[in-house]
Every structure is written in structure tokens, then in C-alpha cells.
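Support request, please re-run this one:
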Amino acid sequence: MASPPTGTLTFLFTDIEGSTKMWERHPEAMQPALARHDEILRGATEQHGGYAFKTVGDAFCCAFSTATDALEAAIEAQRALLGEEWKVTEPLKVRMALHTGEAQERDGDYFGPPLNRVARLLTAAHGGQVLLSAASQETARDQLPSGAALMDLGENRLKDLFRPERVFQLLAPELPFEFPPLRTLDIYRNNLPLQPTPLVGREKEVSEVCDLLRAEETRLLTLTGPGGIGKTRLALQAAADLLDEFPDGAFFVPLATLTEAELLLPAVAEMVGVKETGEQPLDEGIKDYLSERRLLLVLDNLEQVLGAAPAVTELLAVAPGLKVLATSRAPLALYGEHEYAVPPLSLPDVRHLPDIAALSQYAAVSLFIERAQAAKAEFEVTSESAPAVAEICVRLDGLPLAIELAAARIKMLPPKAMLQRLSSRLKLLTGGARDLPERQRTLRATIEWSFALLDEGEQLLFARLAVFSGGRTLEAIEAICDAQGDLPVDGFEGVSSLLNKSLLRQEEGPDGEPRFVMLETVHEFAREKLGQSAEAEEIKRVHAQYFLTLAEEAYPELRGADQLEWLERLEAEHDNMRAALTWALKRNEAEVALRLGGALSVFWLLRDYHSEGRRWLQEALAIDGRGSLGSRAMALAGAGWLAENQGDLDPAQEACEEGLELLANEAREASEAKLRLLACLGWVAWTREELGQARELLEESLALSREMSDTWWLAFSLFGLAIVPQSLGDSERATQLYEQSMELFRELGDKQSLAFCLTNLAMLMYSQGDLGRAAQLTEEAVALQRQLGNRGGVSMGLYNLGWMALLQDDLGRAADLYRESLSLSWDAGLNPIVQSTLEGFACVAGPQGAAERAAWLWGAAQALHETKGIPRDIDFLAEADARISAVRSGMGEEAWGEAWHKGRAMTLDEAVSYALAGEEEASG
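Re-run finished. Output below.
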């Protein structure tokens, strides 16, 4: 085609899979091979009316007037490539992608979102595969080339983090059709959030950040710049692009809502799935987890907890495969840190403006246009408005947030009117702190300008919304921001307005209810406005009272049929609970802090916030004024249980004894607090093998629960009492108590407590030789844990079931159970279960005739046992040792020793991969 096509086009992008390695292996042969490759692609493109507008290395970028033409070119090229006799050891495998949309043509090149989309789609393909977007499929489906068909591969998250794309694969005679799963976000371990809008104008920066992180010497890279410069979006996109280079995943850790350095490691642990256990503090657990993995952490807004920066250095020191990509408004000043100052978006020279097509290629202008069209679909840049649009972007210094805030006003103000108002406002409001960067002062002025355009009621609502942390529901907004009925604007209408004006963003909460969040830069400005008002303290008091009420409402619900929903609700509101606790502690509001901490203690237990919960409770208990006896006793009970779960028995006992002493002075002895205190002391005594004391305390708890007619505590006391006869070998009495407890838990709908009870009873049945009953109980417990999303509980139950299958010589089922258990426990960083499951795999391999595999896995498990100091599982210890002894005898000491040492030499990552791979013999 003599000239480039225009209008709605179909873009065909191609490249050679693995070409870099092929050049390294066959540098001389690759040169003529690439020339032939180019000849084939160029010929197929021209034959079907396409226009090859760019080649980069071995990549082709072509434009076609119709999707059918592009498909025909792809089929012809793939057939020719497959039929070619290449002079290299492996054939050239070319991947291809098609996407249809409107793009702007300038000087023979194309620009716009469709180009980004097709490039992302191409990265998901494999050599020899041709993929189509939904847009291309819709255009081509009624005019497919002869013999061609399209296979729906479903919705996939491409690496641009924008909306998922429905992807189709081209099927045609003589072309391969079986390929591995697409290389999308879905196949890599990550928690990278999808973004509501595409990333605009950051291709160069993303590439530079990726190159820096690929460098061996870069372990810590900090993206710096003022609020609103786009550090987070850039970090997320770089992480998405690098996913296939980090086999253990990439994890985004938002820190904007944290205020204490001690919360950094818990935040990291939560995102990667490491749970706190009684045997190991959380900080050691996360270090152990990361030490064996090649993983990328994205620590966002690290300046919020800058005091925790040394903890990042500690993680990097113990985890050689870890890399950290941080965002911060200033460098972290850590040894080995590499800094990347995020620049503003590219800007035109307003003194020498290019034509409209060229103007829209500047990233700042392109972002303004894209966001303005999202707010007003008919918006377009004309020759009349182009100078004003360019001037707006320049006046906003190319800052993405500032541009987005301005573009959102396009419904109210055309560019010229916007520029006039913006110009005067910026002159008036650039007087921020002199030590702030100029761009940050300009951004402040931009937010101030956006705030000034709100009406009085919206301004008041905006300031009051600053009291929240981590998100807001509409119900909470109306209850807190209009507690006195004095808000001049309807809460729903006000939120809608702030949402439309980009001062709020909407997310989906755990129950599908919308939550409203602020960008942190906007939130900081809102906090200033609230702080300047006379009502700040009253709003904070109302906020604390609201979330205290919510926590106390949730407390009994965590033991009932709706416990999962309430756990998720508290998880979503955890940052608000933290904000309420922080306010109460600063104001010495002892009663609020004690009640809130006591009510949240069960949530902290069930969601593994042990250390954090203990810290909040200790601070609340230390406030002068002490609070009411009942509130203090509940807080002490919470502190006791959290300490007991961590194995800190002395602090647990001290807290509970202090609580009971307080309650002894109350007229009414029967209380929820006393039940919690007695039960906790009973568990402490049992852990210390003081069985008589344990029985006495738990029987007192049982009697009190009956006096109070509290069914849940009756069930829990029976469950606690059952462990005493079980420890003494009285299986009949223990079984009776477990069954009574389970019946009550079932009536109450408390799945978590029922699962604990079922697991204990199952192991009691196993000790009596009743494998069938033990398996039935364990399967029921696993089903409950799956419903609750408790990976640790599921993996432990599956491990137990694996042994039960093995003892019945069902080797295939045992291997399947161990495989799922190992996958879950490895993902969750639960090394004790990983170790036990490796032993289970070894015991399966022996009877399967894979003695060498058994020795490798046994060696790997023993290495983990010794290096981490993890105790072996006592329930199946004798059986495991006996089975491995038989394998060892059959192999002979020399062969066993050689294979065993090879297993010990594997990294934990290698051992897990080897175990999950199947029954192949070890090699290498």
C-alpha cells in the first residue's frame, strides 16, 4: 500500500519467540534467517493490502484496513514460516496478535491506545500462535478466511493492568493449535490490582525501570517524586511487565494508611500470605518465607513508614532472590539503593505548538484528552482549543494527577475557560512551604483549585471525609459526616459529585458494597482542611464511636453462621479501626481504646494479627485512668489469648490473672470477660502439661457458661475440656466431649470452631486405629476451612488425609492430597506443613518403586528440619520413619547416602518444585 491507511484499523504485531537466545547461540546463522523472516512477513503484509509502518529488531508492526485482511496475512505468513528450512538448530517461531481500533497517524507512524493494547496482547502469545482481541474478533467473525475459525480463550488479564481482555486464537489448516496457557497475569502469582484507566505516556519510563530491575546489581529501586507524579502506576506496570522473571510472583504492598514502622512487616506478610504461628514470630516467618524465593515486592508510599526502611534492608540481606521496588516522595537513604526520579509527562513547547496530530502525541496532552473524553465523550481537540489544552498541561507541569483533576472539569469548563480560572488560581495558591519542590507546590494549588470549585456543602463533606482511613462505605459516610444533621448537602449526592470530580475513587468492597477512597495526595489536602476546622476533634470522636460500635456488633457475629462475612467486613475496615485506636490513645480515651481493642481481639486472633493486636492492647491498658473494670478485663482477656497463641505463656497467664483479680471486685461475677479469662488460663495450663489445673479452670468455665446460658461458651468449654482426657489417654471421655461440642457448634453455625474440633477428634480417632472415621472428620474440617478461605487449615487437613490414604495403600490419592497440601502451604509460607508434606511424598515414592526420589525428598525435608528448627509431626512420626527405613535398606547405604545428600543440597524452592513435578526420578 502506497500510503498508510486511516480510520478504524486492525493492527497486526509480530515478533520471534526467544530470538535473543537464538542470536547468542547462532549469531552467524541468525542474520540470513532474520532477512528471510522479514521477507516473508513483508510479502504477506503487502499481498493483503497491509502497511508495515515499523520494525524494531525482529518485531513487525502492520496496519490493515480490515480485520479479514490482517488474518489472511497472518495465516499466509505463519504457513510460510513453518514451511521454511531454517539454517539454525531450531525453527523460528513467530507469535502474532491483532487488535482493532482507531489510532492517529503521523508521518507514517501510529499512536494511541490500540497500539498499546495489541502490544500487550502480543506478550501473552507463544511462538506460532495468533491471538485476536474481542474487537478484532467482532469485526472479522462474519468474514473469516476460508477454513479459518476462532477459539474463545476467555477473559484474560493482560499485563497492562487495565480491563481484562476477551482473547481468541486463530485456528487454520496447517497451523499448530495446541499451546501452553497464555502468558497473562492470571498464570503468575501476584496481587497486582487492575486499574480503572489505561496507563498513558509512560512507555519509556516503564522500559527504563524494568531494565534497572533486571540488572543484577539492583536489589532495591526507589521511584521518587512528588505526590501525583504517577509513581504507583509506573511501579505497578513495571511489576506486571517483569512477572515472568520472578517465578515466585510480584506483590503490591500499599502502605499509605500505615503510621507505625512496626506495621511494615505485617503488611508485607499479609500480602504474600505468610501467617503468624505460635512457634515463630511474624518477622522471622516472613524472612524465612522470602529467603527461599525469587520474588518482587512493590512497597508503595514507603515514606509513610520511613522508620521501617531498615527492615527492608534486613529482608534483602536474608533473601538473595528478593528485589524491592519502592515508591517514596524522597529517597530512603539505604545502602545499595538505586533511585529513579519519575519525570513529569512530556510537554509541548507552547511557544511553537505543532499541529493537532503531533500535539496529541505528547504524553501530558494525550492523558488530558483521554481523561476528558472519559468525562465527556464528545470532547475533541480543535485548532481553536489546542493552544488552551497545551497551556493547561504546561501550567500543571505534566503531573498526571493534576491533569486528571483538570480534565474531570471539562463537563463544566471548556479549555479556554478552564485555563483562565486555572491561571488565576495558580498565581494565588503557589505559596506552599518553600522547602517543597515546585511541582509539589503546583499540585497543591491544583487540588486547592479543584476544591475551590466545590460548593459549600461539598467542601464540608470533603474535609469531613478525611477522618477515614483506607476507604469509606456510604453508610459510614452518612453516619459520621452528617451525625448532627448539619451537612448542607445530601450524603449520597455529595459523594457522587466528589466521585465525578476525581476527588474520590470507587472500589468494590468484600460484600459488593461500594467503598470510596481518596488518592493519598488528595487525602493529605483533605486532612489539612479538616485540621483547620473547629470540628476536627468532634468528627474524630464520632468516627471512633462509629467503629467501636461496629467492632462490638461484630464480636458475637464472629462466632456464628455469618462469621466469614463479618471477618471480611472487619478486614475492609481495619485501617479505620486503627485510626480510631490511634485517636483514642492520643487523647487518653481509655474506655474507647479498651473496648475497641477487646472487641477486635477475636478478629486479630482469627486473621493472624497477633503481634499488632497485642501492641494495641498493651498501649490501651497503659493509659492513665484505666477505664471501667469490665472493659479492662475484656482487653486483658484479648491480650492473654493473643499471647497464648504465640506461645508466650507467662504474659498470657499474667494478663488473665490480672483480669480475674479485677472481676473479683465486681458485684456481678458472671461475664463474658471472665469466661474468656478462665478458658485462656485453662489452655495455658494444658500447654504446660499442668492437666489438673487445666481441668479445674475449664470446668469452672463450663459451669459459668451454663449459669449464663451462653451456648457458644458451653461448646468452647466442652472442646477445651476434651483435650485433658485426650492427653491422659481417656479416649472415650474425650470423644464424648468433642461430640457434644461439635453438635453445639453446628447449631450455632460456627464453622471455624467446628473445624478445630473436628481436626482434634479426627486425630483421636486415628490414634485408636479408626482410619475411616478419622478421614471422614478431617474431610469435613477441610471443607469448612475451604469455605472460610483458611489455606493453612486446608493444607494441614489435606496432609492428614494424605497419610490416611497412604496407610490404606492408596498411593495415587495420597500423592494427589500431598500435592495440593504442598502447593497451598508453599504459597502461604507455612514451612512446618511444607516439611511434613515433603516427608509424606518421600513415603509415597518408596512403595511406587522410586527409591531415589524418596531419598531426595527425605533429604530435603531433613535439611529444612535442621536449618529452620521445625519440629517433626508426631502423629505420623513412627510410621514415616519405619517406611523410610525400609526404603533405605532396599537401596543400600551407599546409594541411599548419595541420593540423600543430593536432596539435602537442593534449595527449598527446588525441593518443592521437584516434589510437585510428579514421580520422575531425580537427575543432575
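Residues 536-557 form the longest helix (22 residues). Residues 424-441, 919-924 have pLDDT under 50 and may be disordered.
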